[in-house]
Predict the 3D structure of the following.
Amino acid sequence: MVRHGKKYLEAAKLVDGNKEYSPQEAVELAKKTAQAKFDETVELHLRLGLDPRNAQQQVRGVALLPHGLGKKVRVLVFAQGEAVKIAETAGADYVGDEEFIKKIEEGWLDFDVVIATPDMMGKVGKLGKVLGKKGLMPNPKSGTVVSQADLPRVITDARKGRVEFRLDRTAIIHVPVGKASFDSDKLLANLSAIVEAVVKAKPAGMKGQYVKTAFVTTTMGPGIKLDLTPTLALTAS
């Protein structure tokens, strides 16, 4: 049995385990349950009615959070030739090829987003075991393998608050929404962007209930169950 600390138990008293909260109520309650000494991250957890073992039922995508994640996003771009200057001008923190591949092989991981141009993937592929475990491996499906013409847009999106999501082995998607210190309206706007992106990523041939349950929580706080009807009606507009 998991033992929780005093602060968690106090926060849990604020949540009615039998109630399904509207998105607005949930983010406001999440802020109240964040009682740690640091600025906790507000998270969204969605359980989907999919089989993670079925290749046709994979869900993966990107959401652009209008209010970001409350932290500086460090962007690494693997590029060569003219693309190097384009990436540097667009504001990437690190740009290069072999030197950064070697650094990563030696254990360097001081970055949050990795982007690559297609011509670099032959070299970057050797980092699959390292970057893959961290969810940082550039991938066309997640929009992180792009032409040099698209580099400025993708780098800008990453800095604004670009978050990737994917179905895990237990059929759950875990996504950060923002910081507990954010205003409720900002958290709700970010939540809306994520929900909209996940709904749009529904596999074409999927039958039955797509989203089974949805919870909002904070890094150290209890889960807050969302009412699916108003939650799935959220849009980022």
